[in-house]
Amino acid sequence: MIFNRLYFNRGILYQNFRQHGWLGLIYLLLLLLSLPLNIGTAYRENAEKINSLFMVRGELLWFFAISIPVVIGLFLFRYIQAGGPADLYHSLPLKRKHLLTMNLLIGFVMILAPIWITAGVTGWVSAVVKEPAYIFDGTAVWMWGVTMSMVSLFMFTLTVAVGMCIGQSILQGLTVYGICLIPIVFWGVFELHLMRYLLGFPDDAFQYGRTEISPIVRISNLNYAPEWGELGIYAALTVILVVLTYIFYRKRHVESATQAITFRIVKPIFRFGFMFTVVLVSGAYFTMIEPRGSEMWGVAGYIIGGIAGYLGAEMIIRKSWLIWSRSLLPRFAVYAGAVAIILYVPVADWNGYASNVPTSDRVEKVRIGGDHFTYVDNNYIKMDDDQFYSANTGYIDAVVTLHQKIVESDLPLRPLGVNRDARDEEEVRIDYQLKNGKTLSRQYYIPTSNFQQELMDVKNRDDYKTTRYETYILDGEVRNIGIRSGYNRDRTAFITNPELIREFKALLKEEILDQSYEDQRSPWETFASVEVYMNIPESSSKLMLDGVNRSATYEIKPSYSRLIEWLKENKLYDQLRVSEDEVASAQFIKQEINSPGNVKMVYADPQFIDGNPQGNPMIVTKNKKIISELLQRQRAGFYTDNDTIYQIKLNFIRGQNVYMILKEDDLTEEMRAILLDN
To answer: How many of the other CB atoms lie within 10 Å of CB of 172?
Structure first.
């Protein structure tokens, strides 16, 4: 009797259900409309077999799981955030732990009852529907209920625990989502800081696991039920939050209602967290928009963010913009010093990161070019790394030599954002697997002209070409091959004969591995592109992840003379070739690029020649020799700040017109004569 009276006071229970029970009904209604109703009314000619109910409107279900429990937590514990209700509830002849227990259990009932009612209805609907659109078993229903329960209870208990430290409901809700989202914001902008001020830092260092540290982002990206281990983490966090809630509630003062922060010890944590986040965001923004050649904008962004972040935190805590006091500046100096140390230490020269180049005898194997991905079930899946590493000692020596010269060259820190200079620049991504079991990764953007010999020593090796041009795929079983002309996308050829496929892919691999460094840097557009389609074996899932079951694209460069000759012998060349007799005329418009220091990408631009925005003179010719020479080569896009180019349009008698560009130095004598005469 005493237990029931203290822990389950009927008046409190009745009041809470009467005042807040509608939230549980709304949760139930939303779940019923989103899952069983959708399953019962959906129609498909061929039923889809699914192993998770989150494949049916999963994004909506996840949204409910991370939002409705938060709202329930805000409403159920609204009484501790308002002065009048706080005094009233805490004047009742009930201990705080009893009051808290009742409200927590009511919240659990309002969350769990809708979930499991929905699970039961879903199971019943799937059993009675005669022509189901989705086929699933009872395990999928059970896992859906457990997953929704764990995630919803976690969000609810997090809201309650945060509410014990916050005295305002609005700030409480914002803080809950801030705690869930700040980790991904923090790592994202801190990564920009390291990329900007730490030479060699890879831009994907935090890519894997970045979403894992933010519960909301992690949950919203799932279209399946998490593993039991992950659910166990949510369950453990829920228990920890419940324990912390009891501790915080016991120490919380009633008069702290309506205050921004209820515990003194939380205020410095809030100040520093808020200030540091604003510092990172402001610094990242100013870094992205900094003018070319200026390295102080990022620093100015950090200073502005530090001032704004500290003042903002003080205003939130004091609930007023009148925050001046004698302790304001000394306290700001302490926080600013702590932030400066955290920002400086990782990028300081003395930490040895930028100058760390392993010796060849420490390297077990090396890779150039970073990770490789394959497209599987509407997702890009990271492929197995081992096949892209090489243990060839000569290749390791060449890569280490290149890396050593990059470090010794004392390259300037690379600017980021829209003002980044991209002329004569090449990305070099190096991954070492060391003999001590560790991995060392670096990424640089280097001026190609300063490292030609070192780059040549690396790129002329088969180890580089095999991974860079994915020739390993050609070793698999190919179903068919499609070839598309580089001069007219309408011109295609297909190879389905097994014998011809074997000959073609062997010759293509040979041409790729035989190409020189100059061939790899060729400025000319390719003669044709090749799409290789692999066979799909029955046990395809593993092979897809290994990079075997997929399509791959290759180029047929003008330098691949043996392959082009093979196409001619097998009567495929004429299917791809464009004849000068098919072109009625060629139009030339001169384009001057003269913007020193402001590098831009130059490419074949249909709008430039069709719209002629600058009103430049247009030269038209029907000379078949000139047209034939144009069809044999066209320059690829390139970066420049000072060049003279010609935008060219080939007007076909039938079919789609072709646009191309040539530099002034690329023009033949016949072209120069016509252009100069006009």
So the answer is: 23
**What single-letter DSSP state applies at residue 412?**
P
Q: State the pLDDT at residue 380.
A: 63
Q: Are strands 134-135 and 48-49 parallel, antiparallel or unpaired?
A: parallel
For residues 602 and 593, the answer to whether their CB atoms sit within 8 Å is yes
**DSSP label of 261:** B
**pLDDT band per the 50, 70, 90 thresholds, residue 1:** very low
Task: Measure CA 336 to chain center.
Answer: 31
Query: Is there a contact between 167 and 256 (Cβ–Cβ < 8 Å)?
Result: yes
* Distance from chain centroid for Cα 654: 43
Q: CA–CA separation, 136 vs 147, rounded Å? A: 16
DSSP 224: S
Which tokens is 440 given? 């060392």
Q: What is the pTM of this model?
A: 0.75
Distance (Å, whole) CA 430 – CA 424: 19
The string of pLDDT tens digits covering residues 405-444 is: 999 887 777 666 555 556 678 889 999 999 998 989 998 8
Q: What is the identity of the amino acid at 572?
A: L
Mean pLDDT of the chain: 82
Query: Quick one: pLDDT at residue 540?
Result: 40
pLDDT classification of 489: cutoffs 50, 70, 90:
confident
CB 520 within 8 A of CB 459: yes
Do 374 and 540 touch, CB atoms closer than 8 A? no
Residue 127 has which token pair?
């059993």
As beta bridge partners, residue 261 has 166
What gap in Å lies between CA 209 and CA 667, rounded to an integer? 52
Encoded tokens for 412:
């300037």
Q: Is the pLDDT of residue 356 over 80?
A: yes
- What pLDDT does 89 receive? 60
- The DSSP element (H or E) to which 492 belongs, if any, is strand 492-495
Instruction: Order across the sheet with 363-368: list the strands.
Output: 363-368, 425-434, 439-447
Nearest one of 275, 273, 279, 262 to 317, comparing CA atoms: 262
What the block records as the tokens of 629 is 């020479």
Query: DSSP secondary-structure letter at 522?
Result: -
DSSP assignment string, 137-185: -HHHHHHHHHHHHHHHHHHHHHHHHHHHHBS-HHHHHHHHHHHHHHHHH
pLDDT at 363: 93
Q: For residue 642, report the phi and psi dihedrals to the nearest 5 degrees.
A: -155, 100
* Cβ–Cβ under 8 Å, residues 468 and 543: no
The single residue listed with the structure tokens 């281990």 is 229
DSSP string, 456-476: HHHHTSHHHHHHHTTGGGGGS
State how beta strands 583-594 and 618-621 pair.
Answer: antiparallel
